[in-house]
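Teaching assistant's notes for section 4

Start the section by putting this record on the projector. Ask students to predict, before seeing the second block, whether Protein-S-isoprenylcysteine O-methyltransferase will look compact or extended. Collect guesses on the board.
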Amino acid sequence: MVSYWSSNLTLKRIWSILWTDHRPHLRMFSLSLLHHLFNIQSFLLGVVNGWSIAFALIYGGSGLHILTFCVYAYFLTLFHFSEFFMTALTNLESLRPDSFLLNHSPAYWTAAMCSWIEFWARAWIFPSLCSLYISSIGILCCIVGELFRKLAMCHASVGFTHQIAVRKHRDHQLCTKGVYSLVRHPGRP
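Reveal the predicted structure now:
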């Protein structure tokens, strides 16, 4: 089994070969591999997204907890795909396989899996705690959060990055318009 760190280093190596190596055959191979990485991640997100919609339509009437989890899975896959898509639209130079944010960190996936276990344990032990009112508030928060984040990506455009900056770059211009008049992104100190 390949660990997160070694696979991440491999992705970084592929990316550096793609943009720095001038041997056409190696560059073409790297470009093909890069497209496969984009395609595989998009396909998997699409499958999970489709399953969440299908399960919601088929089994949603048998319990609010099933419908709630399906909506959660829908928004989770939508978030990951839209991160890649908005990066492609607003900052093509920084587009990488990591732009899906699927390999964020082991801690991210550990927290996600723990939340899934907690959700299903609570639904099984305390099924009456599942509330349509609270789920509706959660859906509204997801929609508002997604819109706010995508607006931020549009306003920052090429200045938006998924990497947290620890030093100010010489060419950095602080974006203070749009949503950045209210908040600051940690990618820019």
